[in-house]
Amino acid sequence: MSHSISTTCTGCTACVNICPVKAITGERKSLHIIDTDICIDCGACGRICPFQAVEDQNGTTCRAIKRAIWSKPVITEDKCISCGVCLEICPTGALDFDEPHAHQVHAIAYLKEPVNCIGCSFCEEACPVVAIAMAEPVPA
Amino acid sequence: MTAKPYTGKVLWVDLAQGTFSEESIPDDTYRKFLGGIGLGAALLYREIPPKADPLGPENILGFMAGLLNGTGSLFTGRWMAVAKSPLTGTWGDSNCGGTLAFAIKQCGYDGILFKGISKHPVYLVIDHHGPQLQDARHLWGKDAVETEDWLTAEYGQRKHPAIATIGQAGENLSLISGIVNDRGRLAARSGLGAVMGSKKLKAVVLIGSRRVSSADPIRMRALALKCVRAIHLSLKYIPAGIMAVFGSLIGKLPFGFTQSGHLFSGVLSKWGTLGSYPSLVGMGDTPFKNWTGTQKDLPNVTKSIDPDLMIKSEKRKYHCRGCPLGCGGLVEMTTTKQESHKPEYETTASFTSMLLNEDMGLVYEINDQLNRAGMDSISAGGTIAYAMECYEKGWITKKETGGIELTWGNAEAIQKVLDQMIRREGFGAHLTDGTKKAVEIFGTQTQGAAIHAGGQEISYHDPRLDPGYALHASVDPTPGRHTTGALLYMDMYRLWTRVPGLPSSTQFFKKSSRFESGGNRTVSAVAVSNFTQFYNSVGACYMGMLIGVDSVPIFEWANAATGWDLSPEEYLRIGQRIQTLRQMFNIREGIDPHNQKISQRLTGKPPLESGPNKGVEYDLEILMQAYWQQIGWNPDTGIPTRETLTALDLTDIIDTYH
Predict the structure, then answer these.
(1) Residue B127 β-bridge partners
(2) What domains can be seen in chain B, in order of their start residue?
(3) Structural domains in chain A plus CATH codes
(4) Strand locations in B5-119 (E)
(5) pTM of the complete model
């Protein structure tokens, strides 16, 4: 099962714009559809939908969350082994390797493009050594 | 339902028709063949007709993901190219790290297989909306880095695509060409770049985002954390010079000792594979002057080829996906100011000691050139060494070389010949298909200088120090490889810590004992072969395996990812099945396993007159026969017996016994 869209959809296209794999189609102001073969269950559509029209893979209605407080990965440098699995799994290319710091020779992963991060937590889930934890951004 | 680490399907691409089809792979097939090289062998044995032209439409080129790619296990970032080899005419495979392995699965497949030949150059793109073939005429003629950069700009607006491509060597159907990914990493061996070129397939671009599951992700992580703690050995304050002293000491002693996988991991992490060069030269493992010389021919080599100097030029380390060591590194070329991968041990040995060249700057240039052109540095250097020996002996003269003075160590000549080999022009055109083909041009008198097994040039580890290299290079269905086994590997894999009944290595041994056949040595050799097939099927890196299976829990990861409860013996049994199927592929092709024997020079005929391997001579045939018997193949012919095929449950695939 993948995410799906219920009839409460107003066709606002917010989900179409956020979906990292272009799995959602539909005309503006008409019911949208998620292609279950393409959907990767990142949940971004559910978090962005202001009308609570998205159900997750378990059939639970997703709650809209203000994008500014979507969780983002926090990488513990001392634990990171530079294996790059998080870069590979990130569906939006938001992570990259930093330039090695003066005392290091191996580059550490970091959130290069926070604006592209959709808070899917794939990186946290994939990190083999528990170096990534998702956390709400702290206001500046 | 238990989550699975495999996708359960492969993609078939018919390049002649421009069509795609998906094939579902049953769970039982994964249990029998795992993935990677194993799944590739099962599919290609079924689909490639006997005696197919390796560069014709009937050959199939597969890009295979390993069972453990992307599951959270470490050291499992390798993908495998599989096809019938145009270089050896045998089963062909070659694997590579970087980012491609994980990307194959992220596109929803465990393998992407190409058949037929396209009418014009094309590249394959798989994105979220499925596979498409695109016109590549504008990319034909570009090198691998230029091609990858163009495709990244075209498709990498957000997520960075994983790309495999061929350079000019593959386009020109050089039989020693490979497939390039990550801007210069090569699946170099078996000549599979030429297969890709023959199909007019310029590149594969993968932009998937699917997650890869495992049955027990918590156990996967627990194993990874324990592994990372176990392998950490920092050599930060150890200079490379000490490694040279260490190697020279071992070279002079009458006895050897089991080497430490943990020390090796420290070497890899600090210097990369080139870090082993000073010690291997001292031990007598690195060949000189086309395998006829010793360190005395290049006395300052360990000073001029200094890994410490190399890492000073390193911009940053490079890790394959899922690897905690990071033996790769990126450097900036002094001439072009472009980023390039640092040279590996094999490339360095190939273009320094083998050719008696001490100019490391030349190695950097050639390494970059070969990576861009997509040519195997082992075979390229080995073939130039053959030509230099022929030139020295007068079998090749300036008339043939077009005026090039092909003397040992002549950097300008090396560069000129290599340029010609890549472009298939002039004198170099005679060398661009390797030494075996060159003998057909320059005559049988040059046979002794052509050092290969079954047509593939030998990697630079001397079998007169470790005859396991000769044995595996001769009995493995892909001949001429160093990654398929050696006595050293049994010591370092430490399989006896997981497989009851396997003999353990002794801490110290008489060097002469390594040349004895039968007994524990043969049992170990077959275990190494079977283990190699296992880890090539799960997508693991042999460098990581050399740290030892008691520190790198590859069997445990396989069970945690799949939810199976197989013992290490059962996994080795699967390895034996894959090894036997690959051998049957060759038998069906009409290949006599005796003809894959490594060149006589490497068995000490004639013996070296000086150096650590002075006077060594041994009977390879006896070692091969003992191996064949132990693995269940006919000891006289090397053909798997009917009983073995039945016991390995291969009779459903191999319906005709040859």
Answers:
(1) B130
(2) 9-206 (3.60.9.10), 276-450 (1.10.569.10), 467-647 (1.10.599.10)
(3) 1-65 (3.30.70.20), 69-135 (3.30.70.20)
(4) 9-14, 19-24, 61-65, 79-84, 91-96, 111-115
(5) 0.96
Kindly report the three-state secondary structure assignment for every residue of B250-283.
Answer: HHHCCEEECCCHHHHHHHHHHCCHHHHHHHHHHH
Mutate to test the interface with A, among B219, B316, B327, B556 (most CBs of A within 10 A): B316
Which residues on chain A are in Cβ contact (under 8 Å) with B220?
128
Q: At B467, is the secondary structure helix, strand, or coil?
A: helix
> Under an 8 A CB cutoff, do A83 and B158 touch?
no
- Give contacts of B 174-213 with A, CB under 8 A: 209-211
Beta carbons of A84 and B319 less than 8 Å apart = yes
Cβ–Cβ of B317/A105 closer than 8 Å?
yes
Interface of B with A in 312-341 (CB under 8 A): 314, 316-317, 319-324, 326
Residue in A closest to B227 by C-alpha: A129
Asked if this assembly's ipTM is beyond 0.90, the reply is yes
- Angle (deg, nearest 10), helices B377-392 and B360-373: 120
Q: What is the pLDDT of residues B147-192, one digit of tens each?
A: 999 999 999 988 899 999 999 999 999 999 999 999 999 999 999 9
Span B543-595, pLDDT tens digits: 999 999 999 999 999 999 999 999 999 999 999 999 999 999 999 999 999 99
pLDDT for B265-305, tens place per residue?
Answer: 999 999 999 999 999 999 999 999 999 999 999 999 988 99
Closest CA to B170 of B149, B153, B147, B154: B147
Three-state DSSP class for B614? Answer: coil
What gap in Å lies between CA B127 and CA B205, rounded to an integer?
Answer: 8
Closest CA to B97 of B207, B192, B196, B179: B179
